[in-house]
Amino acid sequence: MLDQNTFTETIRAVQDIIRTSAEPMTREEILSYFKDMDLNAQQEEMVLEFLSTPHDDPQPEENEPETKEAEYEETAEKEETKESSAKKESAKDSVTDNISTSPMFQMYLEELKDIPEYTKEQQIDMYKKLLVGQLPLDDEEDDDINNVELPEEKQETEVIQSNPELLEYGDKAAEILSYTIEDENGIVTDTIEKGTEFIIRVKLHFNQKVPEPICAFSIKNVQGIEITGTNTMIEKNDIGPKEAGEDVEVSFRQKMTLQGAEYLLSLGCTGFEQGEFHVYHRLYDVCNITVISDKNTVGYYDMDTEVKIS
Asked: Could you give the maximum distance between any two Cα atoms of the chain, in Å?
């Protein structure tokens, strides 16, 4: 609520200044006398209208119940709530209209038309390729997200980053030359989507004759708990005796059922000679595996449960 006496005295004072001023007062100069009264826009317009209208007798009679200035104040206060909402809506519509007709906004809409829509599976593929630097650039001829291929050697040496703190040991009668992890699309990556198939490939080189080689892998979580793993003997798929100089590639294909998290992969080549167990080459915590998921269940892995309600 404005102080009526202060407002009235200010109106009178500004009237005197306007009459005696050599130059016409600007809108800003007039309103500067009312800056401490927190007038709204409508009240400001009413003050300016009143002061711009000539008045023969700006001094009201002493017994007049209300001055002209007080009438303006009262009217403005009564209409303030009603007009405030209307002004806000009008301002909002004005801003919206200005934006929608802006040339920059129209250019932005045109650019949005050129952005293709991707399925959820394609978006995940793009994310995985982006993580390993395989997402094509805009100026490349082939921008199909499913057709990004790198030479095999480059994939093995640059895509899968080995852990610099891995634990390696063994007599190397058989040696792990290289390894890769491939997602369901055959892309070499250490990022796998939960629920999809992936392959772990291990290349072995035999420096000596090995009668019963076994190739294995295991996966542990970042807390060091071994979650899962298998080997060629457990899977009843023997490599068979190998002579010195021979190479072999072992592929483990499986479905990723682990929860979305970070894991460590370990690889090994062992075997039996005359009934005794030998470790030829082991790489503990050789690299990281990232599992991405939009739904994690309880525990270490997901049983792919189907729920029906009837």
From this structure: 126
